[in-house]
Design brief:
0% strand, mainly alpha, 3 helices, 98 residues
Length: 98
C-alpha cells in the first residue's frame, strides 16, 4: 500500500516536471519569435524560474548528448526518461499489491 502511494506521488511530480518542460519549450518559442519580450518583468521572472528548476535536471542530459547545433533534444529525452520511470514505478507498485 505504501509503495502504491509512493508511486502516485512520483507520478504527480513527474507530471509537474513534464508540464514545466512543455511551458519552457513554448515560452522559448515565443521569445525566439519575439511574441513576448524578455524586457517584460513578468516574462523574465517566469523564464528565470522555469530555467532554475529545470536546468539541474537538463544539464546532465546535455553533457551526455552530442551537439546537434541549434536544436536542443534534452527536454525530449527528459520527458521520455520520466515516462519510463513512471511506468517502472507503476508496474512495481502493481506487482507489490498482488
Amino acid at each position: 500500500m505504501l509503495f502504491l502511494t509512493l508511486s502516485q506521488i512520483v507520478g504527480y511530480l513527474i507530471s509537474i516536471i513534464i508540464v514545466l518542460v512543455i511551458v519552457q519549450f513554448v515560452l522559448s518559442l515565443l521569445i525566439a519569435f519575439n511574441v513576448v519580450n524578455m524586457h517584460n518583468q513578468w516574462v523574465a521572472a517566469i523564464w528565470r524560474s522555469i530555467n532554475a528548476l529545470l536546468e539541474p535536471i537538463l544539464r546532465p542530459i546535455r553533457r551526455i548528448m552530442p551537439d546537434t547545433g541549434a536544436i536542443d533534444f534534452s527536454p525530449l529525452i527528459l520527458i521520455v526518461l520520466l515516462n519510463i520511470v513512471n511506468i517502472i514505478f507503476n508496474n512495481l507498485a502493481r506487482s507489490g499489491l498482488a
